[in-house]
Structure formats: C-alpha cells, structure tokens
Amino acid sequence: QVQLVESGGGLVQPGGSLRLSCVVSRKIFGIYPMAWYRQAPGKQRELVATISQGGYTNYADSVKGRFTISRDNDKNTAYLQMNNLKPEDTAVYYCNSDSGSGPLWNSWGQGTQVTVSS
C-alpha cells in the first residue's frame, strides 16, 4: 500500500508563500502522474494541480499564475510552490496520483494545513 507524507504547511499572511512537499513510498515513482488536492472546512476536496510523468502541468483556474507543481523522481517527491497566497487558499492540502478522472490511490496521507490570514 502506498504511503503519502505531506509537509510544509503553516500560517502565512496574504501575499505570502509556502512550499509543500509530498514524499511517496512507491517504487518507480516516476511512472505516476501526480496531483495536489485541497479541502477547505465544509467543502469537498478539489483538484489544485497535476503533473504528468513527463512534467506537463495543469492547474485549477483559481491558482493559475500563483501555484507551481513540480516533481523530483530521484527523491520520490512532488512539490507545490504557492505564491501570492489568499485567504481562500486556506485548506488541508493532500497529494495523490492522478488517474485523469480523480485520485488513483485509495490511501491518503494526513495532509498539511495551510492557513492564510492576517
């Protein structure tokens, strides 16, 4: 069973930046497309960004131009660089593989809390 460990969240003021990391305990990490999701209180989990095996990226409209997803296959790690954060970005952030129609893996990590507030 795959294990996912997210980290890097915290409390930041509007306009600030954070870099999230997701370490995946899965061999041949590089063959999996990866994604970041987030879930705000009282809301459904939503897809934030995806990155293919070859590095092609895609973003939700709400984060385009502010967030950057990347990956380091040698470290089995996916990243989410978040700039110009807004209060509406407040959520628990999770990573998973991307099947194209939702998360691929049934297991989830504990997530990392991002709070944007002055």
Describe what you observe in this structure.
The protein is built from no helices and ten strands. It has 118 residues and is mainly β. A hairpin with a 4-residue loop joins strand 7 and strand 8. The protein is globular, with a radius of gyration of 13 Å. The N and C termini lie far apart (40 Å).
Structure keywords:
mainly beta; globular; 118 residues
What's the alpha carbon Rg, rounded to whole Å? Answer: 13 Å
Shape: globular
Low-confidence sequence ranges: none
| Proportion of helical residues | under 10%
H and E string: EEEEEEEEEE
Going by helix content, strand content and strand pairing, the class is mainly beta
Briefly, what is this?
It contains no helices and ten strands. The chain is mainly β. The model has no long low-confidence stretch (mean pLDDT 94).
List the helices and strands and how they pair.
Elements: E1 4-7, E2 10-12, E3 18-24, E4 34-39, E5 46-51, E6 57-59, E7 67-72, E8 77-82, E9 91-97, E10 112-116
